[in-house]
Amino acid sequence: MQKLWQKSSKQRFDRDVEDYTVGEDYLLDRKLVLFDVEGSLAHARMLKKIGILTTSELKKLEKGLAEIASLAHAGKFSIKKSQEDCHTAIEMFLTKKYGEAGKKIHTGRSRNDQILVTLRLYSKAKLREAQKAILGLIQALKFKSKKCRGIPMPGYTHMQRAMPSSVSMWLESFVESLEDDLLLAKAVAKIIDQNPLGSAAGFGENILGLDRKFTSRLLGFARVQKNPMYCALSRGKFEWMVLQALSQIMFDLGKFASDLLLFTTKEFDFFSLPDAFRTGSSIMPQKKNYDVLELMRGNVGIFTGFQYQIQEVIKNLPSGYNRDFQLTKEPYLKALRLFLGTAKIATSVAVNLVAREKSLRAACSKELYATDEVYRLVKKGLSFREAYRKIGLEF
Q: What is the pTM of this model?
């Protein structure tokens, strides 16, 4: 099969080089087909607007792109390794079916800006999913906090009992942190909401008169990403920014899991989850393990590892498109999938969490109230330091 970039069918290429350069892209791109179709449809309609496509050609391309979308929804749109990516597979499908109309779809476009707009649309969609997921988790935590109102709980510093707290205070601490995290996610969503389509190979186009504002409206972007070289520069950078925002949420979820792993031990017995959340041991019949929380905690490191991979690929690249960018796709897609899965599990944990009130009240021993006693003496006129020493001698 002749590749898009081959000048002649006689041009030969090394199979090992092909395996190495294509990598897993043709498999990863199955997740991106629908977003590439969306970008291609907007581009085709813009080409009709500026006189490159006829009405008849546009109708053919619209029909073909709709068919591709239908196949992709059903998991039946194939991308061959020889095609390298979804962009080539889509263009070849359209060309095979509609001839000259299919050959025109790439006019004024490069695979560089094609993947940029595809990933940008994908990122916007996943950020919307992420924000919805976190709002759901916040609501679950708030509901559980309300149900547990009035249940005391020891507060800890240095892993030792410190001062009186409550189950509601503990849960609401995660609520407020997640609400702040959402502000960061919304800020990143605003930053990436700009259209790179029309930047072509990274230097724009000066002959055809591409209407980038038109495609921005069609695709729902807030604005055009004006400088074409900045479009290329934002590859990897924007993906890293998305993961950076979501990493703050992952840190919260990791801490939530870590707390619960401690507080569900027999030694604490502050909380429990139904058996559906626990696994067993292959040798110890009595064991009921909270593996799901261990994996939630561990996956924070896996997530930041994906973020670090992207950072290391892009950090010293020169301006313009470089093939290195291809290596950011896999960790990015995996990171977003991991985030959404972790947020879903965390929400389910919050909904099903059981506070063991008897154990929590029993753990609120006398020493937790030592500082309160100090302040009572202060209110009677004793200096803080004298009151501190007087109460301290009692423990």
A: 0.92
Span 288-324, pLDDT tens digits:
999 999 999 999 999 999 999 999 999 999 999 999 9
Burial label for 36, CB within 10 Å (0-12, 13-18, 19+), is buried
Which residue ranges of the chain lie beneath pLDDT 50? Answer: none
Q: Give every CB contact of residue 255 below 8 A, 6+ residues apart in sequence.
A: 174
Residue with tokens 């009405």: 55
Looking at the chain, the domain(s) classified CATH 1.20.200.10 span 111-207+226-363
Does residue 281 carry a catalytic annotation? yes
- Domain(s) labelled CATH 1.10.275.10 in the chain stretch across 15-104
**In sequence order, what are the beta bridge partners of 155?**
163
CATH topology of domain 111-207+226-363: Fumarase C; Chain A, domain 2 (1.20.200)
The arrangement of secondary structure in 15-104, i.e. its CATH architecture, is Orthogonal Bundle (1.10)
Please identify which of the residues 56, 70, 78, 281 carries the catalytic annotation.
Answer: 281
**Of 222, 221, 145, which Cα lies nearest the Cα of 178?**
145
- In this predicted structure, what is the pLDDT of residue 261? 98
The pLDDT of residue 27 = 86
pLDDT at 112: 94
Question: Which of the residues 8, 9, 158, 282 is marked catalytic?
Answer: 158
Q: Is-catalytic flag, 158?
A: yes
CA atoms within 13 A on the CB side of 225: 28
pLDDT at 395: 83
For residues 353 and 356, give the distance between their C-alpha atoms in angstroms, rounded to a whole number.
10
